[in-house]
């Protein structure tokens, strides 16, 4: 039996494991995909204190090595449910683990546009990660949907290799950091279409572009392209806990900066909880807060 089981191996979960081990508690981190969470898809991190620049993969690898050296256990499995009680049971797709407390740190996943046939083209014309798939579009014409920080980071990476990049933003401005926005718009092969939303995918078996609609005039325009990257935010990965802890209307775990859920002994950390700012630094902070709260609960 573990003292603390941490569900999710992103910055929040890995930091929680680090703090749990430094308090002398046994800890297991369960991750269903890649340790590091969304950070592994970031080609460049420039806003983490103490580092002028690093890749998301480097950051994640260092965190994993650190918690392994501290004695935490890691496993790749998908958590299906938490059975609450004085002793809690975390049920995965292949095992059941007993523990005294749980930290939910499952983060969030890419948000879809919600248009017809979108999922049919994922991996076949529609991508979410420029560092993963950008090379496939070298010298080609590409679309990028979104105008926040994540979208702008993707845009800067794509602009270095594609022939042309058209950014479609549903608002009258790019909402990411000004420095990023200025860098993106400085590229000669980049144009931005504002106040527009994606209504339809063009192409049958092969992605050929999209039809957009201007939210002010209602005018529809067909944009031909070889591929499209979608960067319109994330949705919380909390479906397995809908019957365990209270979620808000958007599916985030209802918890404040104390990282406490409505269930004793179950805590939450990172992007899957209700919060205003979702950054690597705030995820790591949550991991520390949740782990120390779990340690106090265990005693």
Structure description:
There is one protein chain. The chain is an alpha/beta fold and 299 residues long. Helices cover 23% and strands 27% of the residues. The chain has 2 domains: 173 residues, FAD/NAD(P)-binding domain; 112 residues, FAD/NAD(P)-binding domain (3-Layer(bba) Sandwich). The model has no long low-confidence stretch (mean pLDDT 95).
Blueprint (SSEs and pairs):
Blueprint: E1 2-7, H1 11-22, E2 27-31, H2 56-69, E3 73-76, E4 79-83, E5 88-92, E6 96-104, E7 108-110, E8 126-127, H3 130-133, E9 141-145, H4 149-159, E10 164-168, H5 178-185, E11 190-193, E12 196-202, E13 209-214, E14 220-224, E15 227-230, E16 234-236, E17 266-268, H6 280-298
Parallel strand pairs: 1-2, 1-6, 2-3, 6-17, 8-15, 9-10, 9-15, 10-11
Antiparallel strand pairs: 4-5, 5-6, 7-16, 12-13, 13-14
Helix pairs in contact: 1-2, 1-6, 4-5
Summed up, the domain count is: 2
- pLDDT averaged residue by residue: 95
CATH class of the largest domain: Alpha Beta
User: Span between N and C termini?
Assistant: 16 Å
Largest sheet: 7 strands, mixed
Number of strands: 17
CATH architectural category of the largest domain: 3-Layer(bba) Sandwich
Q: Could you give the order of the helices and strands?
A: EHEHEEEEEEHEHEHEEEEEEEH
Unreliable spans: none
What spatial form do the alpha-carbon principal axes imply?
Answer: elongated
CATH domain fold name of the largest domain: FAD/NAD(P)-binding domain
Considering DSSP H and I runs of 4 or more, what fraction of the residues is helical? 10-25%
């Amino acid at each position: 039996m573990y003292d603390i089981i941490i569900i999710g191996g992103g910055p929040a979960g890995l930091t929680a494991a680090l703090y749990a081990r430094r308090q002398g508690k046994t800890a297991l981190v369960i991750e269903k995909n890649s340790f590091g969470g969304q950070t592994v898809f970031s080609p460049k991190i420039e806003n983490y204190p103490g580092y002028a620049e690093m890749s998301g993969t480097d950051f994640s690898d260092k965190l994993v090595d650190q918690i392994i050296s501290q004695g935490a256990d890691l496993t790749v499995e998908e958590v299906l449910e938490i059975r609450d009680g004085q002793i809690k049971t975390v049920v995965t797709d292949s095992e059941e683990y007993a523990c005294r407390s749980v930290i939910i740190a499952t983060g969030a996943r890419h948000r879809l546009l919600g248009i017809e046939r979108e999922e049919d083209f994922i991996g076949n014309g529609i991508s979410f990660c420029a560092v993963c798939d950008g090379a496939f579009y070298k010298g080609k014409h590409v679309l990028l949907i979104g105008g926040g920080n994540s979208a702008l980071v993707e845009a800067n990476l794509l602009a270095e290799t594609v022939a042309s990049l058209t950014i479609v933003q549903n608002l009258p401005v790019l909402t990411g950091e000004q420095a990023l926005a200025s860098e993106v718009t400085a590229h000669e092969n980049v144009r931005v279409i504002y106040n527009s939303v994606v209504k339809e995918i063009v192409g049958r078996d092969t992605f050929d572009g999209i039809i957009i609609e201007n939210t002010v005039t209602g005018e529809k325009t067909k944009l031909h392209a070889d591929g499209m990257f979608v960067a319109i935010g994330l949705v919380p990965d909390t479906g397995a806990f809908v019957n365990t802890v209270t979620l808000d209307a958007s599916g985030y775990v209802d918890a404040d900066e104390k990282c406490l859920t409505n269930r004793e002994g179950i805590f939450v950390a990172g992007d899957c909880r209700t919060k205003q700012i979702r950054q690597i630094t705030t995820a790591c902070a949550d991991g520390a807060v949740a782990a120390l709260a779990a340690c106090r609960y265990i005693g």
